[in-house]
Amino acid sequence: MHGNDHLHKTHPEVIKRLKRADGHLQNVIEMMTGGRECSEIAQQLHAVEKAISAAKKLLIHDHLDNCLADAAKRPKDFGAAVANFKDITKYL
């Protein structure tokens, strides 16, 4: 990512979600080193997974809303936008 070309209005929310997930992950590591029950650790890891998944989904949806809408206004760039769309959908 170069400059602010790829910043979207939801990026602060995505960053907030990722920081929250990072905090939970650090807690999981502490739980493991502290000898907590595996079921408790698995539950927290599940929460981390869900938080990251939600952040990824928000990022991709925001990308689609912004980048494809912009490309639709510029027909000469639409082919590149479709290629980009196909590329990002592999992460859904």
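(the above was protein one; protein two follows)
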Amino acid sequence: MGGRAKGFGRVTLKVLEVEQGEWAVLRVAGEMDLVTSPAVRQHVHDAVAEGRRSLVLDLGEVRFCDSSGVGVLIAARRLMRSCSGRLRLILPAQGAVDGSHVNRVLAALGVRRLFEVYPDLHTATDETAEPLSA
């Protein structure tokens, strides 16, 4: 899988696709809003179309996420469950963005508990690791 970036005027969203064993990893950086969120949705759909059933969304570098971004995450969860797949999120407690903005948004909306959340890629792709508590 190759890396692709989408730019929309001043607002930029980058999605880099990598593989980690059986896991497809989408590293998302920038802002997930009404304009940019469809790019994340498309990457998720592309991974499923390629037969990937284990997906990690690394959201540690997302500096802003509005309701459309949350909608994409919920839709990704639904899609992965519908094909008997697995979805894990990386939402670090500390980092370049002073903690995870997405984690705070999901918690504020009361949907954080819907997701399996891990602090880093190593833990997210470890079959024996337990997700962080909501």
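Reviewer note on protein two: Strands lie at 4-8, 11-20, 23-32, 54-65, 86-90, 116-118.
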